[in-house]
What we know:
The protein has a single domain (29-118), classed as 23S rRNA-intervening sequence (de novo design (two linked rop proteins)), CATH 1.20.1440. The model has no long low-confidence stretch (mean pLDDT 94). It has 126 residues and is mostly helical. The protein has helices at residues 10-26, 34-57, 62-88, 94-116.
Amino acid sequence: MKYRDFKDLIAYQKGFTQAMNIFQLSAGFPFEERYSLTDQIRRSSRSICTNMAEAYRKRAYPKHFHSKMTDCWAENGETGVWLDFAYHCNYISEEIYNQHIALNTEIGKLITYMINNPEKFGVKED
């Protein structure tokens, strides 16, 4: 499959969905979490997409692609940890937590696939 744009990537689409869901979910977090949990989970979930966009635009440079995709992977991991905190602080239900963690895991697998198969995304190895 040929990707015309980073927005065509399944990993990007799922990451964007996750970021938007987290935005809505985090709107209900307590005010005292505004500068810690709320800002951090929103930032890390959004960074998945922004780093993926940069990686895709830099795919002519394999090392840059790899670097930005590993940043995506790290931000996805961070988002999962913030979800853990939200659940264990009783800000979200177990059902909501499980839904978000399942999507987080799926996004992580897609990112890993992209890291391990860069040629399928237009990256020309040196």
